[in-house]
Amino acid sequence: MTTAFHGDPWIKSDLHARLRRHAAAGTLVFGATRWDGVSGSPLGVSAESDDCADYAARFGYPLALTPLLDMMTAYIAPERALADTLAWVETVSPGADLSWVPLGIAEEMLVRMGAADHAPSRHAAVLDLQRRDMAGETITRADWTALRREMEAATDDAHGPEAVALRACAMACWPLRTSRSVVASLVQMWQTGAPPSPDFSVADRIQAEETLHAIIAEMRPRREDIPGLFRDRDPDLSRRYEAELRRVNLIAEQRIAALPPLILHHLAAAGTP
């Protein structure tokens, strides 16, 4: 059991006050996790360290959850980032059991990446292993490795949504109780992994990248309008490539914006003892 703030209301209020002081002083900086002794990211100024394990030990949040604090606030507007950082603390009551929150978030990521629909048996298998591990059953390293290798092997023959689902399941195949990277990796995969487009295939992407590389090689050491040259050389492919970039970037922006409320929802659901 992971007990938030070790059951001590003073730890929570002190953390909340520290974050507000750093925000007022301009020493709370959103982005990658860091702490330089004076300023840092939300995790950094909270734990006065850039180590997720220090945050987990000091405040009673599960290790697998701690990287998400900086991830969820890194790329949003500073005003909202501050509000979400404070909400990360405010929504949790001292003494709340947060042990199952990482699994809840991991489950949601798997569903959002199509695991339940496109790899149902592997999805069920990895969740079964995770739940048994969380309940205290001894799951050996060999058990985790065997299931992950089975999923990785299946990925080699899969395409499209099935391949995405299998990769996500394989990524989730390691105990959340002891890992600091599994949930964060799933979140990053979801944020950056736009679903395939019927209008732009893998072959289209390969062709576009080969064309761009050829143009860049021809232009060295000159610097010219490479997108314009691409449009001249292959108008249809360049048009669809640029549309695909816009689509992927828009999905990433939407998912970045959706991440804080998603995480805070899971915290709130477990936020009272």
Jot down its keywords.
mainly alpha; 66% helix
Question: How would you explain this protein's 3D organization?
Answer:
By secondary structure, the protein is an all-alpha fold. The chain is 66% helix and 0% strand. It contains 14 helices and no strands. The chain starts with 8 loop residues before the first helix and ends with a helix.
In short:
This protein is mostly helical and about 270 residues long. The protein has helices at about 10-25, 40-45, 50-60, 65-75, 80-90, 100-110, 115-120, 120-135, 140-155, 160-170, 180-190, 200-220, 225-235, 235-270.
Topology readout:
Layout: H1 9-25, H2 42-47, H3 52-59, H4 67-73, H5 78-90, H6 101-112, H7 115-118, H8 120-134, H9 141-155, H10 160-171, H11 182-192, H12 202-219, H13 226-233, H14 235-269
Helix pairs in contact: 1-5, 6-11, 9-10, 11-14, 12-13, 13-14
Unreliable segments (pLDDT under 50, ≥5 consecutive)?
none
Task: Determine Rg (CA atoms, Å).
Answer: 22 Å
Fraction of residues in H or I helices = 55-70%
Largest pleated sheet: none
